[in-house]
Amino acid sequence: MFFAMKSRQMAPKGPNSSPWIVVGQAAAALAVGMGVGRFVYTPVLPLMIAQAHVSQQAAGLIATANYFGYLLGAIAGIIVPRLLQSTLTLRTSLVVLTVTLAGMPLTDNVTDWLLLRLVAGVASALIFIVAASSMFRRLHGYGSHLIGWGFGGVGAGIAASGFLVLLLGRVSNWNAAWFASAVLAAILSTLCWTLKTGPPVSTTTVTPTHPGPLLWFVLILISYSLEGVGYIVAGTFLVAAIDQSAPGLTGANAWTLVGLAALPSTAFWAWLAYRFRRATLLIAALVAQAIGIALPALFGGAAPALISAFLFGATFLGIATLALAIGSHLRFPRATALLTTGYSVGQILGPLIVTPFVSHGYREALLLGAAAVVAAAAAAGTLRMKAPDA
After folding, report:
1. Most buried residue among 71, 120, 141, 203 by CB atoms closer than 10 A?
2. What is the mean pLDDT of the chain?
C-alpha cells in the first residue's frame, strides 16, 4: 500500500506486469478523470463568463453540480463495491466523461450545463477511485514513488488542459475550448483503456474491531474532509483572486503553473515518505497549502500569486495520496471510497460557507479556506500522536 512500503523490495514480475505500464495507464486515467474532466472548467469559466454571458451565480451552480456528482460517484463506490473492481465501470466512465465534455458547447442552457457537469462528476469520481484502487493493489511491493508518479497524472491533465485553453482563448472561443478538452480526454482514454482493475487493498481486509484503529480512521476522515473544504475554496476562487491581486498575471497562466507543480509533487512526497512518517508529511503539506491559500489574500503582486499557485499545486495531490495511503494502511474497509466521500462533502460545503463573503472580493473566502486547512492539519496532528505508525 502507498507510503506503507519503507523498503525498495520489488514484487515478483509476471507477464505484462511492468509496474511502469500500470503507472502510465493509471496516470492517463487520472489525467482524464480529474485533470481534464474535473478541472478544465476552471480555466474555461472566464471565457464562458465573457463570451457566453454566464452569470456568477450560474457559474457557481454549475461548479456545485459537478461537486455533487462527484459525491454521488463516491457514495456509489461505497454502496456497490463491485463497481470499483470492474473494467466496465472504468471504460463506461471514460466514455461518459468525454461525451459530457463534448456536450458542453452544444447548448447554451444553464440547466443542460448543470446536468452535464453532474454526470461528469459521477464519472470523475468512479475513474479516480478505480484507478487509485488499482494502483494501491497492483503496485503493492514496489517503491511508493511509482504510485506518486501515477497520481501525477492529475497534474499533467491540469497543465495540459490549462495550456490548451490558454492557447484557444487567444484565437478561438469557449466552444472550441470544450471541444478540444473532449478530444484530449478521448486521446488519454485510449492510453488507459486496458488498465486492469480488481479488489482494492482496503476491501480485502477485515473490519478492525479494536477502538484504536477506528478512532484513527475517524481522525484521518475529519482531516481529509476539512481539506476538501479548504482545497475547493482555493480551487474555485484562486484564479479570480490572482486576477485581482496581480493584474499583470493572468489566472490561466497561474492555473497552468498549478498543474506543472502538481505533476512531480506526489513522487516528491513519496520520496520523503522513505524518511518521515506519513502523518508528519501530511501535517507539513497541509500547513504549506494553508500558507499558499492565504498569500493572495494578504499580499498583492505577481510574486505572492506565483508562490501561491506553486504551493497549491505542489501540495493538493500529495495531501490526497498521503491521506488515502493512511486510510489504506489502517486497513479500514473501502477506505478510498469513504475518504473520497468525506472529501466530496467538504467540496460541496466549502463554496456554500464562503459565498456570502465574496461580494466585495476574495480575501475573506481565501482566509476561511486557509483556516479550514489549518484545522485539517490539527486533526492530522492528533492522528500522529495517537497512531504509532501512521
Report:
1. 120
2. 84
Dist. CA 338–CA 78, nearest whole Å: 7
Same domain membership, residue 189 and residue 122: yes
Q: How many CB atoms lie within 10 A of CB 338?
A: 21
Does the structure show a pLDDT above 80 at 74? yes
142 strand-pairing partners? 140
- Total domains, the chain: 2
211-245 and 302-329 are packed helices; what angle lies between their axes, rounded to 10 degrees? 160
Range list of H helices, 37-109: 41-51, 56-79, 87-103
- The Cα–Cα gap between 121 and 127 comes to 10
Are 143 and 172 members of one domain? yes
3-state secondary structure of 330: coil
What 3-state DSSP class applies to 81? helix
Please tell me the distance from the alpha carbon of residue 120 to that of residue 50, in angstroms, as a whole number.
Answer: 23
Task: Report the distance separating Cα 268 and Cα 285, nearest Å.
Answer: 11
Q: Which grid coordinates are listed for 83? A: 463497481
State pTM to two decimals: 0.80
Hey, CA dihedral for 32, 71, 339, 328, is it positive or negative? negative
Q: How far is CA 305 from CA 39, 77, 348, in A?
A: 19, 37, 25
- Considering the domain architecture, whether residues 176 and 266 belong to the same structural domain is answered as no
The residues, ordered by sequence, that sit 6+ positions from 195 with a Cβ below 8 Å of its Cβ are 22, 25, 26, 29, 87, 90, 131, 134
Spell out the residues 6+ positions from residue 42 whose beta carbon is closer than 8 angstroms to its own: 162, 235, 236, 239, 255
Residues in the chain: 390
pLDDT tens track for 201-238: 443 444 444 435 788 899 999 999 999 999 988 887 78
- Give backbone dihedrals phi and psi of 142, rounded to 5 degrees, phi first: -100, 170
Same domain, 248 and 380: yes
319 grid coordinates: 495531501
CATH code for position 129: 1.20.1250.20
Q: For residue 142, give the 3-state DSSP assignment.
A: strand
Of 286, 267, 275, 271, give the one whose Cα is nearest residue 383: 286
Residues 216 and 187 in one domain: no
- The three cell numbers of residue 244 are 485581482
Percent with pLDDT over 90 in the chain = 42
- Assess whether 140 and 239 both reside in one domain: no
Point out the domain boundary residue: 181, 202, 223.
Answer: 202
